[in-house]
Design brief:
- The chain is built from 11 helices and 8 strands.
- It starts with 7 loop residues before the first strand and ends with a helix.
- It is α/β, with parallel strands linked by helices.
- It has an 8-stranded parallel β-sheet.
- It is globular and about 50 Å long.
- About 40% of the residues lie in helices and about 15% in strands.
- The protein has a single domain, classed as Protein of unknown function UPF0759 (TIM Barrel, Alpha-Beta Barrel).
Length: about 280
């Protein structure tokens, strides 16, 4: 487990990939025990399944029971809230979702609102979206840490960051094909960063699906690009702010290997900073 910095939690986007068996998971391990093994290696994970369906209480309790104290599950808000209803008449839905996820107990980490790209037919500009988001965030159940991800390049702005700050909600910094470059984010949102950092390494899904159909090895070397994200993530930690980072198979081909590349780069940067001071 990555213990060099207790304020940095890194993990993968989901843990259920069967092609990891014999590579990351021991050969022959039952899929229900993937999370038990995973949690002996990493201290956090992003739940992808909650985006598609509301899990049962028994499923959630199973996740909690198979993971150690201190482990954190980040959970995606169901798509019918973010993609279908787009927050309209969704207050009861988010309350049910948060109530359900509370069965994780102290394992419950950030709650992610992953919005899609919105074309001008849905929102002609960012202002109507911000108005709707503002009203919705004012009524969400208190308690969990919340984070908002938008996939419109030009919506990454000081106005979005300020609204989220007003509600105590974090902005997801996303490495994806059409989103800002790593160095551009701080220029776009200003210096008032969130109350915690949330970074998602998603990659280019279309390109990766053309390169591989199995997620058991990296097919791209993304170390140079990963290194470009470290200054931003380091700035959060130097300010005493917790950081979460999650790595997708589509980033380079095999999320655990990408995570290890990042871990190596983070430690190298840390050691370099220590020796320079």
């Amino acid at each position: 487990m990555f213990e060099q910095d207790s304020g940095l939690r890194i993990g993968t986007s989901s843990w259920s990939e069967k092609s990891w068996q014999g590579i990351f998971y021991p050969q022959g391990i039952a899929s229900r025990d993937f999370i038990r093994h995973y949690s002996t290696v990493y201290d956090s994970v992003e739940i992808d399944a909650t985006f598609y369906a509301l899990p049962s209480r028994s499923t959630i309790e199973g996740w909690r029971q198979r993971t150690p104290e201190g482990f954190q599950f980040a959970a995606k808000v169901p798509r019918w809230i973010t993609h279908e209803k787009v927050l309209l008449d969704a207050q009861e839905d988010i309350e049910i979702f948060i109530e359900t996820m509370q069965w994780l107990g102290d394992r419950l980490g950030p709650i992610l609102f992953q919005f899609p790209y919105f074309n001008k037919k849905v929102f002609p500009s960012i202002e109507p979206f911000l108005q709707r988001l503002d009203r919705f965030l004012a009524e969400i159940p208190p308690g969990p840490r919340y984070v908002v991800e938008v996939r419109n390049h030009n919506w990454i702005s000081g106005a979005l960051q300020q609204l989220l700050n007003d509600h105590g909600v974090a902005l997801a910094w996303v490495d994806q094909a059409w989103m800002p470059e790593p160095e551009e984010w701080i220029d776009k949102i200003g210096t008032q960063i969130s109350n915690f950092g949330y970074f998602r390494f998603l990659g280019d899904h279309k390109k990766m699906d053309q390169l591989t159909k199995k997620w058991d090895r990296q097919v791209l070397d993304r170390r140079d690009r990963l290194a470009r994200w470290i200054p931003a993530m380091r700035s959060f930690r130097q300010a005493g702010i917790d950081v979460f980072g999650f790595f997708n198979n589509h980033y380079a081909g095999h999320a655990p290997a990408t995570l290890e590349d990042f871990r190596s780069l983070w430690c190298q940067d840390e050691n370099h900073s220590s020796s320079s001071s």
